[in-house]
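Homework help board

Subject: predicted structure for assignment chain

Our instructor gave us this sequence and asked us to write out the predicted structure in C-alpha cell form, then describe one feature. I got the C-alpha cells but I'm not sure how to describe them. Can anyone check?
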Amino acid sequence: MHDEFGRIHELIANAHELVVDLRETNDSLLNTKQNDIIRTLTVVTFIFYPATFIAALFTIPAAYVPIIDERSGWMIILGSMIVIAIGIWLFVKRRRWL
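My C-alpha cell output:
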C-alpha cells in the first residue's frame, strides 16, 4: 500500500513538473509575440513621427510661414512628408527591423 502511494506521489510530481515546464514555454512564446508586436508598433511610429512633426510646424500661427503662401504649398508639404516616410521605411527595411 505504501509503495502505491509513493508511485502516485511520483506521478503527481512528474505531472506538476511537466505543467510548470509547459507554462514557462507558453510564457516565453507569449513574450516573443509581444516583443514582435511592440517592435512593429515602434517602427510604424518611427516612420510617421516626422510627418506629424512637419504638420505640427505648419499649424503654428505665425506672420509668415514659407511654403504655405505658395500656390502648390500644400502639395509640396504633402510630397515631402511622403518622401520622408518612404525614405525611413526603406531604411528600416534595409536594416531588417521590420
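Reply (TA_rk): Your C-alpha cells look well-formed. For the description, you could write something like this. The CA atoms of residues 22 and 97 lie 30 Å apart. That's the kind of observation they're looking for.
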